[in-house]
Amino acid sequence: MGMMKEFKEFAVKGNVMDMAVGIIIGAAFGTIVKSLVADVIMPPIGLLIGNVDFANLFIVLKEGTEAVGGYATIADAQAAGAVTLNYGQFINTVISFLIVAFAIFIVIKNMNRLKREEPAPVEEPTTKECPHCITTINIKAVRCPYCTSTLQNQ
Known about the structure:
Elements: H1 2-11, H2 14-48, E1 59-62, H3 74-79, E2 83-85, H4 87-116, E3 127-129, E4 136-138
Antiparallel strand pairs: 1-2, 3-4
């Protein structure tokens, strides 16, 4: 019974719940970035370099047993039993990783900036008011230069 109590305390602590929320949001963010790369970033780049779909860039390492040569897509090659090196998908994955890494860098940088901000040090006063003529004078003064009153150390 003691182990169950310890596990319950561990599971409901704020850190575990925060981590779970972070993982769920991270997974959702990953799918958004994957879509951004595959559907928004790579099509214009592919169009610029000659109407190429990066997701279907591959090299056939070993021909398939059912159909030989001239595979239009990775799915066609794999359906024919060919062994492929899918470098286009790798390029998409690297770009996705770079976007996620940059987003995490920005978040961490801002969190660290917020943590580092310390309150400004309290400055020692350098002036005081003369109690007789209400003029601002140097804090070390023992006599007011305006009204010539003798000042007590305050």
